[in-house]
Amino acid sequence: MKKRCSWCEGSKLYKQYHDVEWGVPLHDDQKLFEFLVLETFQAGLSWSTILNKREAFRLAFDDFDAQTIVGYSQNKIEELLGNAGIIRNKLKINATINNAKKFLEIQKELGSFDQYIWQFTNYDVITNAWKTESQIPPTSPVSDAMSKKMKKDGFKFVGTTICYAYLQAIGAINDHVIDCYRYNEVNKL
Question: Which CATH class is domain 11-187?
């Protein structure tokens, strides 16, 4: 039996996310934006809640297409607020529209959002060596700097804890515990 990070045990969806996505270095702008949207909605909630609603989010937010999201009307916002399949939080919905605009501005300025987001880890994966999950911090100097810069650049719902979780999700930080079978696998990617 494969040894995994204990946080993913108990849920088939969580295990699949852990085994396939979490901690894998990601450089696709569309997926980077998707995770930004999901992390925005995760603020104050469990990641399992978001994973369970991920497909509903995908449908509600036009497959996480930033170009479409920036054009959302008040009617679309009301539709989202009435959608029981997602987290119905007006601040987070408005933040997603705002962040889509900022995302597109960054793409235009730098050529890709990937270029922007990976600058915080000097375009490399930070590989930690935690023995237990209790050692994993909720923030770091890198997530502090990222949060500060993203807020300055106009992004919303990008506190340092959200930024740290985002960096873990997109594989910019490898926080698989060292005895998890994925620890060495993602280091080779």
Answer: mainly alpha
CA distances from 106 to 15, 59, 153 (A): 33, 25, 9
Q: How many residues does the chain have?
A: 189
pTM attached to this predicted model: 0.96
Q: Name the helix (H) or strand (E) containing 148.
A: helix 141-152
**What SS3 state is found at 39?**
helix
Residues annotated as catalytic are 17, 39, 47
Q: How far apart are CA 167 and CA 153, in angstroms?
A: 18
Identify the H or E element spanning 160: helix 160-169
Domain chopping of the chain, boundaries? 11-187
Structure-token pair, residue 53: 């609603």
- Residue 87 φ/ψ, nearest 5 degrees: -80, 120
Give the span between the Cα atoms of 41 and 100, in whole angstroms: 14
- In sign, the C-alpha dihedral spanning 73, 81, 61, 164 is positive
126: part of which helix (H) or strand (E)? Answer: strand 126-127
pLDDT digits (tens, 9 = 90+) for 42-93: 999 999 999 999 999 999 999 999 999 999 999 999 999 999 999 999 999 9
For the record, the structure tokens of 135 come out as 């050692």
Residue 52 CA to residue 75 CA, distance in Å, equals: 26
Q: Closest by alpha carbon to 4, among 189, 175, 188, 187?
A: 175
